[in-house]
């Protein structure tokens, strides 16, 4: 049986009415002086237990020719059901 979101639509791979479609979007932006990089990613996964999302944010600076992570944030997978 598929999980239900707050709006009542079904999620999960078994739902014919509104199937979960996995996706992943990543964006990396390098500053004009090549010293700072900002990366952002979001993905949706569709296991049988329900839709899961992952968010990642990384800020990197160039130190002596090598980028070093300064801030890394990863929101562990969560599902719509977790927000109820």
Task: Map the helices and strands.
Elements: E1 3-4, E2 10-11, E3 23-30, E4 36-45, E5 52-63, E6 66-79
Antiparallel strand pairs: 1-2, 3-4, 4-5, 5-6
Description of the structure:
The protein has strands at 3-4, 10-11, 23-30, 36-45, 52-63, 66-79. It has no helices and 6 strands. By secondary structure, the protein is mainly β. The model is unreliable at 1-15 (pLDDT under 50). It is elongated. It has a domain at 22-79: N-terminal domain of TfIIb (Single Sheet), CATH 2.20.25. The strands form 2 sheets. It has a 4-stranded antiparallel beta sheet with strand order 3-4-5-6, with no helix packed on it.
CATH class of the domain at 22-79, please?
Answer: Mainly Beta
CATH architecture heading of the domain at 22-79: Single Sheet
Query: What are the low-pLDDT stretches, counting only 5+ consecutive residues below 50?
Result: 1-15
The tally of helices reads 0
Largest sheet: 4 strands, antiparallel
Strand content: over 45%
Q: What Rg is obtained from the alpha carbons, in whole angstroms?
A: 17 Å
Overall mean pLDDT stands at 79
The shape, in one word, is elongated
| Spatial strand sequence of the major β-sheet | 3-4-5-6
- Say how many strands there are: 6
SSE ordering: EEEEEE
First-last Cα distance: 18 Å
Concise summary:
This protein has no helices and six strands. The protein has 84 residues and is mainly beta. A hairpin with a 5-residue loop joins strand 3 and strand 4.
């Amino acid at each position: 049986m598929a999980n239900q979101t707050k709006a009542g639509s079904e999620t999960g791979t078994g739902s014919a009415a509104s199937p979960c479609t996995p996706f992943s979007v990543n964006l990396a932006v390098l500053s004009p002086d090549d010293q700072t990089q900002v990366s952002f990613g979001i993905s949706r996964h569709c296991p049988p237990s329900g839709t899961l999302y992952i968010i990642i944010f990384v800020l990197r600076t160039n130190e002596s020719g090598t980028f070093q992570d300064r801030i890394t944030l990863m929101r562990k997978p969560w599902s719509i059901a977790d927000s109820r």
